[in-house]
Specification:
Layout: E1 7-11, H1 16-30, E2 35-40, E3 56-60, H2 73-95, E4 102-106, H3 112-119, E5 123-126, H4 131-142, E6 156-157, E7 168-169
Parallel strand pairs: 1-2, 1-4, 2-3, 4-5
Antiparallel strand pairs: 6-7
Helix pairs in contact: 2-3
Organism: Trifolium pratense
Protein name: UDP-glycosyltransferase 89B1-like protein
Family: Belongs to the UDP-glycosyltransferase family.
Length: 171
Amino acid sequence: MSIPQTHLIAYPFPTSGHIIPLIDLTKNLITRNINVTVLLTPSNQHLLPPNYSPLLQTLVLPSPQFPNPNQNRLIATITFMHQHHYPIILQWARVHHLPPSAIISDFFLGWTHLLARDLDVPRLVFSPSGAFALSISFSLWRDLPQNDNPDDPNSVVSFPNLPNSPFYPWW
C-alpha cells in the first residue's frame, strides 16, 4: 500500500459548533486516504477522537487570551489567532516532513488566505452553516439589495441570483 502524499490542514474556529462539523469533514477526507492535521487549542482537544486514524494528526495551538474584558470576544479571538497562531503554523508547515497541500479554514479565519499564500497552497473556506444561509450571506456582500420604497410597510427583499429563493419582508 502506498503512503498517501496529500496533506491538508483543517483549521476550525475554536468553538464546538465550528470544530465538530469540520471534524466530520476530516473523517470523510481520511476515508479517501488523505492525511489531515487538525489545528486545535488545548480546551478543544477532547472533541477529536483519540487514535482515530494514523492519517489524522493534531497541532495544538495556544488558547486565545482576553486581557481586556471590554473587548469584543469574537474580534479578540480572531486577532489573537492571527497574531499568535500564524507564525507557529507557518514554521511548523515549512519543516513538516509532508508539507500541506491545502488549508481548509473556518470562514471566520479570513486571514488564513495570507498563510496559504505564504505556503503557496490553496485555501478552502469552510462554513459550518447551511448552504442556503451561506448563499444569502454571499449574495448580500456581492449584491446588497436596495429598498426602493422605504415608506412601504409591505416591501420585500429577494435574492434573484439564488435559485428558488423566497421573498422576505424588508423590515
